[in-house]
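Input/output pair, single chain:
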Amino acid sequence: MASLANVEHRNQEATCYVGNLDPSVTEDLIVELFTQIGRVNSVHMPKDKLTGLHSGYGFVEFLDVTDADYAIQIMSMVKLFSRPMRVSKSSLDKKTGSGSLDVGANLFIGNLDPSDVDEKLLYDTFSAFGTIIKPPKIMRDDMTNQSKGFGFVSFDAFEASDLAIECMNNQFLCNRQITVQYAFKKASSPNGEGNDMVAEGGRGPSGMPERHGSRAERMLAAANPHREFLSTKTGLGGTGIQKTPNTLFATSASARGIGGAGGPMGGGIPSMPPPPPLPPGLPPGMTSMQSGIPMPPPPPPLPPQPQGMPPPPPPPMHPPQPPGMGMPPPPPPPPPPLP
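Output:
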């Protein structure tokens, strides 16, 4: 729907980058899918000049910036032809984009159910704690594509990763007690590159494997200038980069009474009020629930008898039997003797 000549004229703030697309995905399918979010202005999927196949990604331009932000929140990690889509703002390049937000808040998620837990479930579960800067990664077998039972999640801030560890470590996900901790740092290769998604990686000064979340990483993350740039760019101040889908309608911890005193689990959950006292005149065995049920009113009195008329006689105990009714007659007397 859009040519390369029109790419530079796109509204970058209202354009979404859609990646990890299956070869079967077409521009018409992308238009039909993202039209459910908002008004689509154009769709461009770069294609190979020889084969005519797209490169596995595309750009969706909306008429409104709000629709683009909503598409990122709703469509990210949604599976299309069994492949989770990666949806982000196209205006985020390598210098000011999500790659610069990789401060080292990378978590290792272990003991995952291989059949029930996928990347979408990890995204929906952990995006409640903060902004996930890259799609969650579940390590799979190269031959069978079966999950190996562990994966990785990367946040844009250590506050979010610390909260995720505090809330999710040793909790149950799909009937399995998962392990949430900081991942090992990536091992540097001779050419200076490394794989961030590894179970064991770089080693510290003592020669032992070193995990993310060190004090040095936290100091560098606090002084990251790209966080302030993107916070100003998105108008969210210095508190965050973007809104996460699972926290849009969530109540705050103070509103839920979590973290205060006075509740069971250390929260400020108010206790149940005592039952009201029993009203006077009730028997001791009646409960407060029974006392709350009103008693039925007494029956109305009988109407008074009119003056000057005698009362009706009482009904006889044994009414008289009519003739021919009752006991049979006695037998006739015997005949007189013959002379």
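Residues 1-5, 93-97, 189-195, 232-270 have pLDDT under 50 and may be disordered. The first helix runs from residue 27 to 34.
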